[in-house]
Amino acid sequence: MSSTGAKLAYRPIGLAGGILAGVVSGAVFKQVWKRIAHEDDAPGAMQSEYSMKEVVLAAAVQGALFAATKAAIDRAGARGFTRLTGTWPGD
């Protein structure tokens, strides 16, 4: 399989992985935030009762968890794709 063909064939897997990463990281973030802040929900940017520090910290933690989860799922998907096809989808 050519690298272009592999990239096209991998697209649905990558899309599903991105959705899965969002769901998993959202659930993980909710649990992490409960432990960090002892609150059920993270502060939103437009909620006036929270400080700038709290809002930015929540966003940073959420973003870091999403990025790490997405990278792990993307990498696992690419490795599985390679095992099935013999072609790495990212090259």
TrEMBL record:
Q: Which InterPro entries match?
A: DUF4235
Q: Identify one Pfam family in the record.
A: DUF4235
Task: Give the transmembrane ranges.
Answer: 12-29
* Keyword list, A-Z: Membrane, Transmembrane, Transmembrane helix
User: Can you say what this protein is called?
Assistant: DUF4235 domain-containing protein
Q: Which organism is it from?
A: Goekera deserti
